[in-house]
UniProtKB/TrEMBL annotation, chain A:
<keyword id="KW-0732">Signal</keyword>
<feature type="signal peptide">
    <location>
        <begin position="1"/>
        <end position="28"/>
    </location>
</feature>
<dbReference type="InterPro" id="IPR051455">
    <property type="entry name" value="Bact_solute-bind_prot3"/>
</dbReference>
<keyword id="KW-0813">Transport</keyword>
<dbReference type="InterPro" id="IPR001638">
    <property type="entry name" value="Solute-binding_3/MltF_N"/>
</dbReference>
<feature type="domain" description="Solute-binding protein family 3/N-terminal">
    <location>
        <begin position="40"/>
        <end position="270"/>
    </location>
</feature>
<comment type="similarity">
    <text>Belongs to the bacterial solute-binding protein 3 family.</text>
</comment>
<dbReference type="Pfam" id="PF00497">
    <property type="entry name" value="SBP_bac_3"/>
</dbReference>
<protein>
    <submittedName>
        <fullName>Amino acid ABC transporter substrate-binding protein</fullName>
    </submittedName>
</protein>
UniProtKB/TrEMBL annotation, chain B:
<feature type="region of interest" description="Disordered">
    <location>
        <begin position="1"/>
        <end position="21"/>
    </location>
</feature>
<comment type="similarity">
    <text>Belongs to the binding-protein-dependent transport system permease family. HisMQ subfamily.</text>
</comment>
<dbReference type="InterPro" id="IPR010065">
    <property type="entry name" value="AA_ABC_transptr_permease_3TM"/>
</dbReference>
<keyword id="KW-0812">Transmembrane</keyword>
<feature type="transmembrane region" description="Helical">
    <location>
        <begin position="191"/>
        <end position="210"/>
    </location>
</feature>
<dbReference type="InterPro" id="IPR035906">
    <property type="entry name" value="MetI-like_sf"/>
</dbReference>
<feature type="transmembrane region" description="Helical">
    <location>
        <begin position="143"/>
        <end position="161"/>
    </location>
</feature>
<dbReference type="InterPro" id="IPR043429">
    <property type="entry name" value="ArtM/GltK/GlnP/TcyL/YhdX-like"/>
</dbReference>
<feature type="transmembrane region" description="Helical">
    <location>
        <begin position="31"/>
        <end position="50"/>
    </location>
</feature>
Amino acid sequence: MRNFKLLAAAAVTAAGVAGVAAAPTAQAGEVMDSVMENGTLRCGVNTGLAGFSIADDQGNWTGLDVEYCRAVAAAVLGDPEAVQFVELSAQQRFTALQAGEIDILSRNTTWTLTRDVSLGIHFAGVTFYDGQGFMVPADLGVDSAKDLSGASVCVQSGTTTELNLADYFRAQGMDFEPVVFEGFEESLSAFFAGRCQVYTTDKSGLAAIKSVDAPDPDAYKILPETISKEPLGPSVARGDDEWFAVAKWVLFALIQAEESGVNSENVDEMMDSDNPTIKRMLGQSGDMGEKLGLDPKWAYRAIKMVGNYGEIYARNVGPETPLGLERGVNDLWTEGGLMYAPPIR
Amino acid sequence: MTDQADRRAGAQSQASPQATPVWRDPRTRAIIWQVLVLGGVIALGVYLVHNTLANLEARSIRTGFGFMDHEAGFAIGESPLVDYTAADSYGKAFVVGLLNTLRVSLIGIVLATIIGVIMGVARLSSNWLVAKLASVYVEVMRNIPVLLQLFFWYGAISYLLPAVRQALQLMPGVFLSKSGLRFAVPVADPVHPWMGLAFLAAIGGCVLYYRWSKRRQAQTGVEPRLGLPLAGFLIGLPALVWLIGGAPTAMDVPELTTFRYQGGTSVSPEFLALLLGLTFYTAGFLAEIVRAGILAVPHGQTEAASALGLRRRQVLRLVLLPQALRIIVPPTTNQYLNLTKNSSLAVAIGYPDLVSVANTSLNQTGQAIECISIMMACYLTISLTISFFMNWYNKRIALVER
């Protein structure tokens, strides 16, 4: 009995220590100040997903998620290079944000109700509308996800992917064998080695894997079905509303710039534009920057130094890149897509 | 006698006048210190828990174990012992993970013990080749990190074996492929539980027979045969029940469908890789423990046993191993604990053990502290159970000194 009590005490202490490791002291409302003070933005990114966040052999980061962080750094700090990229696994990402190890999480993260409400974070918007799909070896002879009953499926753990997968097969009344890996690399190599007949993740991810990671891109094909909605976007920790606003409006400015025809090359000429929307956005009239707690040129710098949303898209995932993704739903609302920025006024 | 006692008591009262202050009494002081330290530890624990909860609240992060009843929503690759689907609760998912951990650990412990004993004895063999092979085995296994060994076995299975449609047929009804080992099993029949009972009864019979044979040997000096009667019990009794039950022979044979074999039962490549890795790694250490235990028994024991006319095998079984066991058991406990804890490396190769399930739940719910506490509590419980059992066994075989 005495032993048992000791054990209980030990267990409680251990749990407490673990808790502290996961959530150190609070710093509510201070993210913006600390970014300004340190002169760098700490941005949580994927460990390596072509088109979204990947480092080359010189350690230069590229990708859609990465460039969003650069745009924030340009708007807030005036330097798109003033970003410290923190590589995070799917498991680590929310804890890192909650614990204040990063200022912003930009890691192809799906916006869901549970995450928005119960993790102590806020989603700042959507940088990429995605959906989950399936990839199979071309010689498997399967043309539709509906023919996958009984297949074994390789998937990475800790993602909405894992849940959608189970939901989809349940809804279709089909069974499957999940093979779940913690690491992205391990799950991929198991698929390429033939352990599973199917690999599943977001379709943009599948495109990246097919074009970059696959030993022979033509040996694999992506099935036409899209089985889920995956709005991917950046998020910030709760407790600093000013910082949350900056995260939102930098993204909106990038989208608005594309809509208004402002890009990194013509932005200097556009400073003389008579268009009131452009004037407000570029700080030539009104006090938009001041309201955000920034200077008037915040959006100008983001556009000048990084580019508008369309440029970022084209550079990283667009048709000219190895991923070759058409704009589709990620086009501007004026072009029939979903990208829509509330008015900057 | 009384005189002496009186004098001693007198000396004591002289040495310590009744006015000794409490803080100078070493016994009291020791107790006070222990209470203080314990209080400090508890206060620290309470502070940490309180601080954590306050921080979580401040960040509006959900806490509590309420999520355990919610639908998990993710599928688990293998749950041979309970029927689990994605519609079941997180609580049930944890149970599946825990059972998967226990399954690989228990089988691993049994196999590692067998291989460890064989290799340990082989290293002491007078046959040069056998001894050297065992040495090479021990050195290779002990000196490569277990995670790499897991990757090795998993890689070997994934790359060397053929795809499921070209599965190797080892014997009729047994198929080996990248999707694992799949083999035919008898179709469930009402007679099977009775056969299980008969097997249990046979084990009881074996124990009784063994005791009887020991008594008989003690009385007459003749050692009754053991092997054949015991095997007869273990196989004969269930077989008899099977015959009485109408001798059902229907088999559930795996058949190839579009993607995999269906029917029969299977062992996944993840489980195989994990089991092989853990078993061979731990067996390397156990071999050294067994060797050290045997060498620690003085050589005179061997010589004396030989002088009594025991054969080499008998010397080992009757004289060396029982004494070596006392030295072997305590460090073996450590190895069993290590094997169990190392099984958490399963996440690296996709085996759905406790850690894998807990990590997935942690991600879906965001409740890191709860999921990690459950994991820690489970491993603590498993480890303490193993320790408890091994300590009990150690006491049982300890030399009874008179």
